[in-house]
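FAQ: What does the model actually see?

It sees only this:
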Amino acid sequence: MKDILRYSFYEMVRSRWVYIYTAFYLITTISLWLLSNDNSKVLISMTNITLGLTPLIGLLFGTTYYYNSREFIQMLMSQPLSRWNIFISVYGGLAITLCASVLVGVGLPMLFFGVLQTETLSIFLILLTMACTLSIIFSLIAFLVAMRYDDKVRGLSISILIWLTFAILYDGVVLLLLLVFKDYPLDQLTIGAIVLNPIDMARILIIMKLDISAMMGYTGAVLSTFLGKTWGTGLIILSILTWMLLPLLSLRRLGNHKDF
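And it is asked to produce this:
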């Protein structure tokens, strides 16, 4: 299992796209800091960029990497190895690489600019944690899509559609519902809609820490009241962990029944 994980990690590290992905975060973080010279403003900007980009990259990298590694996985299947160990090891190399890219691209510049000595340290840590979490969740979903559909074009198309749904279309539908039913109490609907979208949950945890919920209107007021309670924040964290656990269980189930 360790050998497969190590091979998968080295295989990802040799990809030039990983370095392009890391370099993008490095250049963007440094440029934003040089423009504003304010850690708080940089973190707000990087929140919008990171929480939108990491799910997309996780989906694209995850889908592409699985298709490229399919023959390698089939070869491993012929060995006396557990299917679960094979899939989790191959996936683990991908997840570690994606998380490392975010930590290096965003974390190193902010550490260099002295984020440890500022009041924004907690926001910085939450941002990195949520970026890594979204990378794990959506790369897992990508693996499931690629395992489900053998056609590469179809798998990539579905992965892009998933990103469009969670990152763009979902919020539009929720906003439309809020406008249509604005005369009714929508507290539970708003919270329920947020729990069903990991990107929204990650964004809201950071926004609430920034204490700018007043700028979010009705939704911000609801979230401020709800998440101001310890059990409310705990529910959001539990929901994010559930988003990680369910794809893992699905990966195990699909991997055990996948016909290669």
